[in-house]
Amino acid sequence: MAVSPGRRFGRALARAPFYLLVAAIFVYCLFPFYWVLRSSFMPEVTLFQTPVEYFPSHPTLSNYREVLSASFFTDALLNSAIVAGSVTLLSLAIGSSAAFALGRLRFHGRSFVLYLMLSMTIFPQIVILGALYTTISKLHLYDALGSLIFSYLIFTLPFTIWVLTSFVRAVPADLEEAAYVDGATSLQVFWKVLLPLIAPGLVTTGLLAFIAAWNEYLYAVSFIQSPGNYTVPLAITSFVASRAESYAVLWGQIMAATVIITMPLIILVLILQKRIIAGLTAGAVKA
């Protein structure tokens, strides 16, 4: 039976508040990203002029050229890639093996260890900054990339272990028992049976660990001094110019640098989106 135009209009009118709410949330979330992108294509002298230009009338790539010509920024990109990549690999390697032990092996204190891992994610980073500074100084890691790798594992590893443990517990035990019957060792079961099954969880937690290490600022500004060891959050704050015996922030270049450092994360999410969705869905259903 065909729906009359009046009833169809009534249904659309009833749904209008919902679509308006979705549109408002969409604009609220994306407008800051648009403003950064818009500012990155505008000359420095026009960024704060009135009336405000919501669309650049004379877009330019000068901000991007200045950013990419700064050696400390290109070095920072490499440093962040090394630190974030190392943290991600170590988190997945240690986290997956720990998750296998906590999710499959039976021993006293297993629940205590698991909840201890969870409790480590509750405290803010600045709470342990003093003790961490002392430890890094005694290990002679101050002003070195190793200090960032060491400190970033403190907040990426507990999260990785907790999430991967839930994925390990969701794997049917019959698959492991069949492998043991066929003569497989625990290491072979972990490597050939378990890891392929929890691949969506590895991708999801690995990407989140990479993003956390890529964007971290507090520990980086506390443990790094040399410009040659800067990571991208530190490099962004270094775009200043001497003007009339004072320093002025180059906002256009900062916006361009922000766009550049965000692109690797966007590309990773687009490439791994199917795995990420599968991992989040599996975690939501099987937790």
In short:
The chain is mainly alpha-helical. The protein has helices at about 5-40, 60-70, 70-105, 110-120, 130-140, 145-170, 175-180, 185-195, 200-215, 220-225, 230-235, 250-270, 275-285, and strands at about 240-245, 245-250. The chain folds into 2 domains: about 5-40; about 65-285, MetI-like fold (Orthogonal Bundle).
Structure description:
The chain has 287 residues and is mainly α. The protein has two domains: 5-40; 63-286, MetI-like (MetI-like fold, Orthogonal Bundle), CATH 1.10.3720. The protein is 72% helix and 3% strand. Helix 1 (5-40) packs across helix 12, helix 4 (110-119) packs across helix 6 (145-170) and helix 7 (173-181) runs antiparallel to helix 8. The longest helix has 36 residues, at 5-40. The two termini are 44 Å apart.
Features:
MetI-like fold, 287 residues, globular, disordered C terminus, two-stranded antiparallel sheet, single chain, 13 helices
| Physical arrangement of strands within the biggest beta sheet | 1-2
Q: What's the β-strand tally? A: 2
- Alpha-beta classification: mainly alpha
- Helical content band: over 70%
Largest sheet: 2 strands, antiparallel
Task: Classify the oligomer.
Answer: single chain
Termini separation comes to 44 Å
Q: Estimate what percentage of residues fall within beta strands.
A: under 5%
List the helices and strands in order.
HHHHHHHHHHHEEHH
The level 1 CATH classification of the largest domain is: Mainly Alpha
- Classified in CATH, the superfamily of the largest domain is MetI-like
Regions with little confidence, pLDDT below 50 for 5+ residues: 242-247, 283-287
Briefly note the CATH topology name of the largest domain.
Answer: MetI-like fold
Overall average residue pLDDT: 83
Domain count: the total is: 2
Kindly provide the radius of gyration, computed on alpha-carbon positions and rounded to a whole number of angstroms: 25 Å
Number of helices: 13
CATH architecture of the largest domain: Orthogonal Bundle
Shape: globular
